[in-house]
Design goal:
With 66 residues, the protein is mainly α. It has one domain. It is 48% helix and 0% strand. Helix 3 packs parallel to helix 4. The model has no long low-confidence stretch (mean pLDDT 91).
């Protein structure tokens, strides 16, 4: 998998200017991204704007409560 399928709708991808994080998560391996996990396991409305790609514990909590 290359670029994230949620790139156009993801708050993080659209609003965060850290090119290193975007390259790490959005452009090369979105399967490692906490936001991607929630998009896949729940629904887009469950992904909080402030969820960072490396916050997997928070993503697991969101998924457990969905």
């Amino acid at each position: 998998m290359d670029q994230c399928e949620f790139l156009e709708t993801c708050y993080f991808a659209k609003n965060v200017s850290d090119a290193g994080l975007k390259e790490s998560y959005c452009d090369s391996n979105p399967l490692r991204c906490a936001r991607f996990m929630v998009y896949q396991g729940a629904e887009a409305s469950k992904v909080p704007d402030d969820l960072m790609p490396d916050e997997k514990v928070k993503a697991y909590e969101i998924l457990a409560n969905s």
